[in-house]
Amino acid sequence: MMLSDTDILNELNAGNLEITPFNEKCVGPCSYDVTLGSEFIRYSSPVYDIKEELKPIKFSIDDSIMICPLNYHLDEPTIEYLKEKYNIDKIVSGGLLGTTNEYIKLPNDICAQYQGRSSFGRVFLQSHQTAGWIDTGFHGKITLEIVAYDKPVILYKNQRIGQLIFSKTLTPSKVGYSERECSKYAGQNSVMHSLIKKDFE
């Protein structure tokens, strides 16, 4: 059963569902809008060998970041011009990991799905690739997999980036995500790089 705005508020008021920070203006008819945090990760590894550590490079922005399509070439004078013209903190090409400001705690009978905003889809920016599903019992911030496909897109810290759609299960999970020993991302409080290497340990 998908939760409506009334259901979401009831679950929050009952303490079953937690969203921190919470903004009632972000409650939609059957979703909750989440906002873009200031922390990001890029990889320095020349190849994604999933059996090896992927060498994440973490950085923060004060206000804004420009996401460019893969192999979108910008020379240094153009980069400096764009930074000054649009007051951009950082310009990156290719895939980028980001995070939500919101830390959520799901009970063992509520799961969620992250979806990017349609307004970003209309400028060909995707904020998740395959990791839109959030299991019951998950605690943490949501890591975003951000890619621009057509032209550079400027994103701003704290703007609405996507939405969470909540569903209630018929029965609670016996073991929630954050209770499982094999869960890699339980309790993440920032952007988190891929830990798929642990699959081979």
From TrEMBL:
Protein name: dCTP deaminase, dUMP-forming
UniProt xrefs under Pfam families: DCD
GO molecular function: dCTP deaminase (dUMP-forming) activity; dCTP deaminase activity; nucleotide binding
Family: Belongs to the dCTP deaminase family.
Keyword Nucleotide-binding: yes
Keywords: Hydrolase, Nucleotide metabolism, Nucleotide-binding
Binding of dCTP, residues: 117-122, 135, 143-145, 163, 177, 184, 188
Active site residues according to the UniProt entry: 145
Membrane spanning residue stretches: none
Pathway: Pyrimidine metabolism; dUMP biosynthesis; dUMP from dCTP: step 1/1
Species annotation: Methanococcus voltae
Site, as annotated: Important for bifunctional activity: 132-133
Catalytic activity, as annotated: dCTP + 2 H2O = dUMP + NH4(+) + diphosphate
Function field: Bifunctional enzyme that catalyzes both the deamination of dCTP to dUTP and the hydrolysis of dUTP to dUMP without releasing the toxic dUTP intermediate.
Domain of life of the organism encoding this protein: Archaea
Enzyme Commission number(s) of this protein: 3.5.4.30
Subunit and partners: Homotrimer.
GO biological process: dUMP biosynthetic process; dUTP biosynthetic process
